[in-house]
Design a protein that fits this description.
InterPro entries: Flavin_trans-like, Flavoprotein. The protein is an alpha/beta fold. The chain is built from eight helices and five strands; from the N terminus they run βαβααβααβααβα. The chain starts with 5 loop residues before the first strand and ends with a helix. The model has no long low-confidence stretch (mean pLDDT about 90).
Length: about 180
């Protein structure tokens, strides 16, 4: 990781693509990113057996809780933020500014700081049909968040059908574009 100067906050909710996070970290690192991994408490529980390995892989502590008052922030400032997979609960909390969860707080602050931010929702068709979901997407888009959903990325599968591959590559491509501008 010598020579990496760009810092990516990779935030993950508890959805099945979180189990691929080590490969995503490696892909991001191969693109020149220093990765800081933040998880929802449930996502941290799901990958609990891998937390030490993920910290070793990233070279940064894996976090799912706010530090105590007065504790220093162990992460460098973010140059970009990728929230993927982002569940129904996480997206709605973020759009509403509910920051009791560490990752929602970081994502909310990224908007306020103007940090390039990309999110990839991951939820069931039933939750995607809930009226709050479209409202939350609208709020986040209006705040400058690039959302890979619908026409820009596979949506949730129909009940009983296999899930499409989660768009990790396109998500990292979007982060790269957001921080370097369009390719000539």
């Amino acid at each position: 990781m010598i020579g990496m100067t760009r810092t990516l906050y990779l935030l993950c909710s508890a959805a099945p693509p979180v189990f691929d996070v080590a490969h995503v970290v490696e892909d991001a690192q191969s693109r020149g990113w220093d990765v800081c991994l933040g998880l929802t408490p449930t996502a941290a529980h799901w990958v609990a057996g891998s937390l030490d390995g993920l910290a070793a892989l990233t070279g940064n502590p894996v976090r799912w809780q706010y530090p105590l008052p007065g504790e220093p922030d162990p992460w460098p400032p973010a140059d970009a933020l990728l929230f993927a997979p982002a569940t129904f609960n996480s997206l709605n909390a973020w759009a509403l500014g509910l920051t009791d969860r560490f990752v929602a707080g970081l994502a909310a602050e990224a908007i306020g700081r103007g940090t390039p931010t990309v999110a990839v929702p991951c939820l069931s068709p039933a939750l995607a049909a809930h009226p709050r979901f479209e409202l939350s997407l609208s709020v986040l888009r209006g705040a400058g968040v690039e959302l890979l959903y619908g026409e820009t990325a596979p949506t949730a599968p129909a009940e009983g059908t296999p899930a499409p591959a989660f768009p990790w590559g396109p998500a990292l491509d979007a982060v790269d574009r957001a921080t370097t501008g369009p390719t000539p």
